[in-house]
UniProtKB/TrEMBL annotation:
MF terms in GO: ubiquitin protein ligase activity
Gene Ontology CC: one annotated term: cytoplasm
Highest rank taxon of the organism: Eukaryota
Lineage: Eukaryota, Sar, Stramenopiles, Oomycota, Peronosporomycetes
GO BP terms: protein ubiquitination; Ras protein signal transduction
Protein name: Uncharacterized protein
Amino acid composition bias (Polar residues), ranges on this chain: 165-177
Disordered: annotated segments: 1-32, 158-185
C-alpha cells in the first residue's frame, strides 16, 4: 500500500507513472489569484454591508428604547400632576360642601326659630296652619335648591378645575329677613 508521502507524480491511463511534473503556466496562476481576490473583495463587501445593516438596526432599536423611556417619564409626570390636581379639587370641593351644609343648617335654624316665635306669639288654642304649610313647603324648596346648587357647583368644579366657583359667605340667622333701610337725603 502506498502512502501519501510516496507520491511521485500523476498516473496515466495505462497505470504507469508519468515522469513529467504537472505544468502550470503563470497565466493560470494569475487567473486563479484574481479569482481569489475577487472572492475576497466580494466577501469583504458582503460582510461590511451586513455589519452596517446590523449597526443601523440596533441603533434604531436603541433610539426607540430611548424614546419609550422619555415618553414613560413624561406620562409618569403627567399622572403625578393630575393626581395632585385631583387631590386639590377634592379638597376644595369638600370645603365648599362643608360651607354649603353650614349655610343650609343656619337657614334651617333660622326658619325653625321663626316658626317657634310665631307659634309662641299666638294666643292659646290658636294654631297657625297657613304658616305651618308654607314653612314646610319653603323648607323643602330650600333644601332641594341647596342640594341642586351644591351638585351643580361640584359638577362645574370637576368640568372646569381651573375656574373658581363662587360661593356665598355663610349667613347668620340674624341676617335673614332683614330689610335694607333707605338712606335719607
Amino acid at each position: 500500500m502506498a502512502s501519501l508521502w510516496s507520491f511521485r507524480g500523476p498516473v496515466n491511463h495505462s497505470g504507469e507513472r508519468s515522469q513529467n511534473p504537472p505544468t502550470t503556466s503563470a497565466e493560470e496562476e494569475e487567473g486563479e489569484h484574481r479569482k481569489l481576490e475577487k472572492l475576497a473583495v466580494e466577501y469583504n463587501f458582503l460582510l461590511k454591508s451586513q455589519l452596517e445593516e446590523q449597526r443601523l438596526y440596533y441603533e434604531r432599536l436603541l433610539r426607540a428604547e430611548q424614546i419609550a423611556d422619555c415618553n414613560q417619564k413624561q406620562w409618569k409626570e403627567r399622572v403625578r400632576l393630575l393626581e395632585e390636581q385631583n387631590a386639590r379639587v377634592e379638597q376644595q370641593t369638600a370645603l365648599r360642601i362643608g360651607d354649603l351644609e353650614g349655610q343650609v343648617r343656619d337657614l334651617m335654624f333660622y326658619l325653625d326659630t321663626q316658626y317657634k316665635v310665631e307659634q309662641s306669639a299666638l294666643p292659646r288654642g290658636y294654631y297657625c296652619t297657613s304658616f305651618r304649610f308654607s314653612y314646610t313647603r319653603k323648607r323643602a324648596q330650600i333644601t332641594d335648591t341647596s342640594l341642586a346648587s351644591l351638585y351643580h357647583r361640584v359638577a362645574q368644579s370637576k368640568l372646569n378645575p381651573g375656574r373658581q366657583v363662587r360661593t356665598t359667605p355663610a349667613r347668620t340667622p340674624s341676617s335673614f329677613g332683614r330689610k335694607t333701610k333707605d338712606k335719607k337725603n
